[in-house]
Structure of Thiamine-phosphate synthase:
Amino acid sequence: MNVDKKDLLLYAVTDRHWLNGRTLYSVVKESLDGGVTFLQLREKELDEVHFLEEAKELQQLCREYQVPFIVNDNVDIAISMNADGVHVGQSDMEAGDVRAKLGPDKIIGVSAQTVEQAVLAEKHGADYLGVGAVFPTGSKDDADDVSYETLKAICEAVSIPVIAIGGITQENVKELAGSGICGIAVISAIYAQQDIRKASEDLKKETQRMVEA
């Protein structure tokens, strides 16, 4: 399944850490109201039964907004709930194996930090790449940092869409202009904000400007 570049403009990744008493469903809905174009459910803690229940509710919500819904890492859950696809890291599974399990019509995203990884992921059937961290995040080891030059080189080396991830905010997103990316993936720039809907709207405007610059 080919991903439409437009769908990757503002890619939100969920994180239960920022809920502050709210439900995941309500914060995701706010972000969709604010214009999020793609949603990845990322859950490290939940047991499978709860994960599946919640995932199905969020998937239904995304369908109402016609926004692609994919699951992080867990290929089996993505299959069992018929999600739109899955996002895997370099260590999780070869994209080729994921494609064999998921079938031809699902979206597969792969994280990449180097041109070599990017080219290989495309060859193995990835539909888009998440490249980062493009800015220091504090949430991951800084060894994962990807320079602007590498980001640009990756965009030039592959024909599938590339999004940047890692430490991106409304303030620094413009620094990615000209790199060749078609969008950004964020967690805290949306879900850690007081007004999630407004944060999504503002970030989307800035990202649109950056992509067109």
Observations:
- The longest strand covers residues 107-112.
- The domain at 5-212 is CATH 3.20.20.70 (TIM Barrel).
- The chain has a mean pLDDT of 93.
